[in-house]
Write a structure and sequence with these properties.
8-stranded mixed β-sheet, 19 helices, globular, binds flavin-adenine dinucleotide
């Protein structure tokens, strides 16, 4: 098994992504052009990323009080990524893009995540520029987005503050109009920002000529007060270095100062920063205050940010998946080569026999198959969601709307499920290595550390769970959940026709019914605190049901391929593992959901 063979199978045999060239937008593409993008990405990831993954972990970003230094390898890798055209792959030809389907872009990016997630490719820069393409003015697109797609400048997302993480309605950064003619600035209504942004990834470095921060801040009214809640939040472009309407640096430094670097458990190749906006360290135009240009309308900042969330969250899910996959491949290799122990025969072990390799022990096979079922299943889920993004953007109106709604329901799973279970895969990869896995001589401990972030950023596990049970399954009168159930039922119908898969189909039908009943039971009293007290077990059960569906659908594609080689056997075994070892877990998770169990919620603080 290799990552490329899995991607090829899932993209072309399961999702039939090559048929996307029947859409007008992708008409110039073919299997050949898709292969060329995958080949190039795989090569750059192999040559410029993988060899330096440990180096960027040990040579953390360094701040000398003036500049942040990163290893040369990071400069080289990101340059190669930008030169490959991947930053603008999905954009129109007019914008220097390739009009590549998001499904293929996402698959190509998987190689970088597997090789070195922490060197980073372009997720933040592309996300930042895509947001401007959707909500920016023509000039904001030309000046900021275009230079980001070209790799000349990079982008950040500045949402969090020291006191406002999950609760963004509490952001304290303020933006006030910059002088009398503030509305007439060609780059957008010009404000001065003041506040602190915490945890900002890639917030300071010398990798690109400029850094374009997208910053959430509140604009006070004439009485000096701000609108409480998320409705008061606006979005601003705040470049590190000021630029003119032609995209040239003016030579003036904006008032954005690095207060310090955060020293992280993992993902150390990417800087993580506390940024001070408007503290007066720099004086653009002779005064303190960070110059920012409004994007969209005042009060619509979070709405603009959420525009990009589905793709960003698929990106996070894919990163978690690829870290899991990297650990799986490393532990598979180790298990094939490590001799340890002897088989247990009827009369016990025969010490005179040579040792066997650990891959021959049933328990090690269990750990490997668990990793395979988590990581290949998650990869399939991410690509399925990416395919929905393409459907939403290029499908016929009804199909596009269905894709939109399905994405609403599936996105919390696409983000959270790999973050939890591919992290578990990393833990199993360490276990397969025994004591060696706990040392820095092998790569698996780093994969685990890097992956531990994914349940925290882009909405924590708990926040995603409440989004799923509190909002997504209820929205539009539960139509998203019904759409998902219809797709799952269609897979069940097809699998029931195949004797080898009928048992799985019946198990999935029962799981789906159970999730539906538990959703109703959770909301039976209509009291949010009752329903949401066990949102995370609900997320886990929902996620496992979705993954069982994905595996059953993939198993149908394996059988349809007519292949019975080792790879096909492996995929069917991973599906079987998921149905036999994983899906039954949902009973325990759903029990506390449907009984609205308050064991945790009602425990008084001093009883802990
Ligand atoms: C390495 C790294 C990179 C990051 N990159 C960026 C970035 O580029 N840009 C950016 O803006 N942010 C970034 N973040 C910030 C990240 O999104 C936040 O850390 C995250 O949103 C959680 O906020 P917090 O850390 O303040 O935790 P808190 O919000 O304080 O949460 C702490 C715990 O309480 C739980 N909790 C909080 N509120 C509730 C609730 N209402 N109900 C139930 N449980 C709740 C959470 O689930 C969590 O378990 C990054 C963070 C890290 C660690």
């Amino acid at each position: 098994m290799s990552l490329r063979s899995s991607i090829d199978f899932l993209l072309f045999q399961w999702l039939q992504a090559d048929n996307l060239n029947q859409r007008e937008r992708f008409a110039d593409h073919s299997r050949d052009t898709f292969d060329a993008v995958l080949d190039t990405s795989e090569r750059i990831a192999r040559e410029k990323y993988a060899p330096f993954n440990r180096l960027v972990d040990t040579q953390e970003p360094h701040f000398d009080g003036d500049k942040v230094t990163l290893p040369q390898a990071t400069h080289d890798a990101q340059k190669a990524y930008a030169e490959s055209g991947m930053l603008s792959a999905a954009q129109d030809y007019d914008w220097g893009g390739m009009q590549l389907p998001y499904t293929v872009e996402s698959a190509a990016n998987a190689f970088f995540g597997c090789a070195s997630v922490s060197i980073g490719s372009g997720m933040l820069t592309t996300g930042n520029a895509n947001l401007l393409m959707a909500h920016g003015t023509e000039l904001q697109k030309q000046v900021f987005a275009k230079n980001e797609f070209a790799g000349r400048w990079s982008g950040t997302m500045c949402l969090s503050e020291p006191q406002a993480g999950s609760s963004l309605s509490d952001v304290a950064t303020r933006a006030v109009p910059d002088g009398a003619g503030f509305e007439a600035d060609p780059l957008g209504p010009r404000y001065r920002l003041k506040g602190n942004k915490m945890w900002i990834s890639a917030g300071e470095h010398e990798l690109t000529e400029n850094i374009i921060h997208l910053v959430l801040a509140k604009i006070p009214g004439p009485d000096g007060k701000t609108i409480p809640g998320v409705k008061g939040i606006s979005l601003f472009i705040v470049p590190k270095k000021l630029v003119d309407t032609e995209g040239r640096l003016t030579g003036e430094r904006n008032d954005v100062a690095l207060a310090g670097l955060n020293h992280k458990l993992g993902w150390r190749g990417t800087t993580n920063t506390l940024l001070n906006f408007g503290e007066g360290k720099f004086q653009p135009g002779g005064q303190g205050g960070a110059v920012g240009y409004l994007v969209g309308r005042p009060g619509e900042g979070l709405k603009c940010m959420f525009h990009m969330m589905n793709e960003a969250r698929i990106g996070v899910g894919m990163a978690a998946t690829m870290l899991g996959m990297a650990g799986y491949l490393a532990s598979l290799d180790y298990a094939r080569n490590r001799p340890q122990g002897r088989p247990m025969g009827v009369g016990g072990k025969d010490a005179a026999q040579p040792q066997i390799r650990i891959i021959e022990h049933a328990d090690v096979k269990r750990m490997l198959l668990a990793q395979k079922s988590y990581c290949e299943g998650a990869l399939a889920l991410e690509l399925y969601c990416a395919r929905l993004v393409d459907e939403q953007h290029t499908g016929a109106p009804e199909a596009a709307d269905d894709a939109r709604l399905l994405l609403e329901v599936l996105t919390p799973i696409a983000k959270s499920w790999p973050s939890e279970w591919c992290l578990e895969a990393n833990s199993l990869a360490i276990q397969v290595h025994g004591g060696y896995g706990y040392t820095r001589d092998f790569p698996v401990e780093q994969y685990w550390r890097d992956n531990r972030l994914n349940m925290i950023h882009e909405g924590t596990h708990g926040i995603q769970a409440m989004d799923l049970l509190g909002r997504k399954v209820l929205m539009e009168n539960g139509r998203g959940l019904q759409l998902l159930a219809a797709r799952i039922n269609s897979t069940i119908e097809r699998a029931l026709q195949q004797p080898e898969l009928a048992g799985h189909a019946n198990a999935l039908a029962a799981a789906l019914q159970h999730v539906g009943a538990a959703t109703k039971a959770a909301w039976a009293t209509g009291v949010p605190t009752d329903a949401l007290a066990n949102a995370v077990p609900y997320l886990q059960a929902f996620g496992h049901t979705v993954l069982a569906w994905i595996w059953l659908d993939v198993a149908l594609a394996v059988r349809a391929s007519g292949s019975s080689d080792a790879t096909a056997q492996g995929r069917l075994a991973a599906a079987r593992f998921f149905f036999h070892y994983e899906l039954p877990k949902i009973g325990a998770w759903l029990r506390v959901v449907e009984t609205r169990d308050q064991t945790c919620a009602e425990l008084p603080e001093d009883a802990f």
